[in-house]
Design brief:
With 288 residues, the protein is mainly alpha-helical. Helices cover 67% and strands 6% of the residues. The protein contains 14 helices and three strands.
Length: 288
């Protein structure tokens, strides 16, 4: 078992290092060095000076999320459904709750601080609190639906002042969060989050592909295919969608349809697509 220092300062750290605010840099340095008592004293002093500062709240979050976190070797089923040994960061339950409470406090008075939403979501999903993480995604998207332009980052930097594209950042980050879902365990939470994401981005083929995986991971191939066909209509050149269609039909032992989609895939201008399609065609033709 390995003690972790500086586990998941995530998006906060990226911005802190760039903009170099003195107190935050001291917090970061202290956490990196494992000097948690020094960090605590610094945060307490900061709290006296500016108790409502949202960046103070992220400082407390980072303090609590890190101070008792440990990396452990686990043996069991992984998020991809495979069984084996893997590494996992384990958080102290009470510290995790306290850390999240500081982010919730910050969001009450700073409802459009995107970095704080992202920190909360990432922490909960990384801690395998899928129900809470999915709810946090839904809460963020509801706020995003109300306001798609006027968002802020750490130190209340306005996206528009920095020419940052709000939608692109939201899409890219949500795609990352989908990779943290466990499609084999807390399926209801995964479905709730995907439904909300697709409510906001109904024609995004990446999220449609994740929804199809939600169904195929439970061997509900007909539902998966229905989703993939709708995605194919949106982007007929997406070879991942095409390959998943072929794969689902193959799993259903509908080799005629599988051959059709592998053939379509073989015509895509991509070496990876052609190689995958060639293997699939050889496999299904031998089964017909």
């Amino acid at each position: 078992m390995k003690k972790i220092n500086f586990v998941i300062l995530l998006v906060f750290i990226l911005s802190m290092n760039v903009f170099g605010f003195d107190k935050q840099n001291q917090v970061i340095s202290g956490l990196q060095s494992g000097k948690y008592e020094d960090v605590k004293i610094l945060l307490q002093e900061w709290e006296k000076e500016n108790p409502k500062d949202p960046d103070l709240m992220t400082g407390w979050f980072n303090y609590y999320i890190n101070r008792k976190a440990e990396e452990k070797s686990m043996f069991g089923y992984m998020k991809n459904g495979q069984y084996g040994m893997y590494s996992k960061i384990v958080y102290d339950e009470n510290d995790l709750k306290t850390a999240i409470s500081y982010l919730d406090k910050a969001l009450k008075t700073n409802p459009y601080r995107m970095d704080i939403y992202f920190g909360k979501i990432n922490s909960l999903l990384s801690a395998e609190k899928y129900s809470d993480g999915s709810k946090a995604i839904i809460d963020f998207l509801k706020a995003y639906e109300k306001n798609k332009t006027d968002w802020y980052w750490s130190y209340n930097q306005k996206f528009s002042d920095n020419n940052w594209n709000v939608e692109n950042i939201v899409l890219g980050t949500l795609q990352d969060y989908c990779q943290l879902f466990d499609f084999y365990v807390d399926r209801d939470s995964v479905k709730s989050a995907l439904d909300q994401i697709l409510k906001v981005f109904p024609k995004n083929v990446v999220f449609l592909n994740y929804l199809s995986y939600y169904y195929s991971s439970a061997k509900e191939y007909e539902k998966s295919i229905e989703v993939l066909l709708s995605a194919y209509k949106i982007d007929p050149d997406d070879y991942i969608i095409i390959g998943n269609l072929a794969s689902d039909y193959e799993k259903m032992e509908n080799y005629k349809e599988a051959e059709k989609w592998y053939t379509i895939m073989s015509k895509i201008n991509s070496d990876n697509a052609k190689a995958y399609a060639s293997e699939g065609l050889e496999r299904v033709r031998n089964k017909k």
